[in-house]
Amino acid sequence: MFAAGERARGFLRAGWAAGLVAAVMHLFAEANGAATIALVAKPVPALLLAAAVFRSGRSALRLPVFAGLLASAVGDVLIQRPGGFLSGLAAFLVAHVCYVSGFWRARRDALWLRALPVALFGAFMASRLAGGLAAAGLPVRIGVIVYILAICTMLWRAAALVGAPGFDRSVGRLALGGAIVFAASDSLIAIHRFVEPLSWSDVPIMVLYWAGQLGIAGAAMAATRSASGAPAPAR
User: Fold this and answer.
1) 30 vs 226, which has greater pLDDT?
2) Is the pTM of this model over 0.70?
3) Quick one: which of 169, 188, 165 has its CA closest to 177?
4) Where in the sequence is the domain holding 124, given as residue range(s)?
5) Is the CB of residue 168 less than 8 Å from the CB of residue 223?
6) Per-residue model confidence as pLDDT tens digits over 187-218
7) How many domains does the chain have?
């Protein structure tokens, strides 16, 4: 059992190192116009996080977050390709639906007050993007509006996980922190694309995105422990 635990920790350490190398490689390749290397390296962090989540213990979050990370890796590839904005957006929409499903399974209390700041954020983003979206095609307008609704729902359900009974406190904190920085990354993308170009935004967008995925994956791995240290039941 001790050897198995050491192997698991070694796998995680190797995964974090490989993910960091792939992330740096993507950013460097993107900055230097090496499109093929950037395309190949970009989904690696999400795939490694998916592997780590899949190897973690059984919980309500494990399979939904695993599926969401796989969908995100697909989105990483699609959105990187020329003309791939809508297909990439669709893949990330699937990822958020997966995350919402896992968060909802983990805690089904509505907690509507926690939805209020999220609704204000969604309304602000919709109004901020309105001018740019008006000039976009109908499929893009519909896709972005649906995506805003999806990520706001994900934020709300992540907030609902904070203090969820039967789970370690870190689960809700990691989920909410990951959801917030993920939303920050998407907000920068939206402003850059539909409001005004942000020449400095490439690195912050990717760093926030990877940090968000890391937080959500960390929540799934932490969910294998209850507050007492026993495995949390799958719901």
Assistant:
1) 30
2) yes
3) 169
4) 2-222
5) yes
6) 999 999 999 999 999 999 999 999 999 999 99
7) 1
